[in-house]
Specification:
Blueprint: H1 3-11, H2 15-20, H3 26-29, H4 47-63, H5 71-82, H6 89-101, H7 107-217
Helix pairs in contact: 1-4, 1-5, 5-6
Length: 219
């Protein structure tokens, strides 16, 4: 069994195990804070994340595992005894401690070693939070810079759109004016042509009439 599996077997109590143990205390069953370390089901993270962080913490505890029979070995003994489902919790602890006493282990030794592991885990917790906060800050800084750049680009594009819209309206108005001017020019040309033809026909008619009269009267 790997160390990560050992760690899980010592600290992670499945729902089936908890339900099968009728002698578990009410604080274990109701998921109170001081028992949350023993119940993986109380950790509100994905299974994949839980496995990853358990591996990291297991490596830390393995590197700092104290020689001899300390809290980790005692906890494992208690966990093994609890699988019998025939003892109350206090009896489980006392039975496991009886084996520890055979190796001259005192309660203070177990408690001190447990507190040492707490300090180690607290240090890891602090480091993890610092790393997480640093990562978040880097992400925020990066996203804020990107957001600022995009806001500037949007403002530039909006300004360009406004200018283009203004030019479009100007060109559209000019096009309408040109169409009106062309229509007016056409009307004026047609009117002038009509006037010219009228004047032309009048003069031509008068001259032709005079030619006829001259040919008639001046023989």
């Amino acid at each position: 069994m790997s160390f990560i599996e050992k760690l899980k077997s010592v600290f992670v109590v499945t729902n089936d195990q908890a339900n099968l143990n009728p002698n578990s205390s009410s604080s274990e069953q109701d998921g109170s804070p001081n028992q949350s370390i023993t119940s993986g089901s109380n950790i509100n993270i994905s299974q994949g994340s839980q496995e990853t962080f358990l591996q990291i913490l297991a490596d830390v505890l393995e590197k700092n595992n104290q020689a001899g029979f300390d809290y980790l070995e005692f906890r494992k003994a208690v966990q093994s005894i609890s699988k019998l489902h025939t003892m109350e919790e206090s009896t489980q602890f006392k039975t496991a401690f009886a084996a520890a006493q055979a190796m001259n282990v005192q309660p203070s030794n177990l408690i001190d070693s447990a507190k040492k592991y707490l300090l180690i885990l607290d240090a890891e917790n602090t480091q993890f939070n610092q790393t997480a906060n640093q990562f978040l800050q880097e992400q925020l800084s990066s996203k804020e810079n990107e957001s600022s750049q995009l806001k500037d680009l949007i403002q530039q594009k909006e300004k360009q759109l406004s200018q283009l819209q203004e030019e479009l309206e100007k060109h559209t108005k000019r096009l309408l004016d040109i169409e009106k001017e062309l229509s007016g020019a056409k009307s004026k040309v047609e009117s002038n042509k009509a006037s010219f033809v009228g004047s032309y026909n009048q003069l031509v008619g008068q001259i032709r009439a005079d030619i006829q009269k001259m040919e008639q009267y001046l023989k």
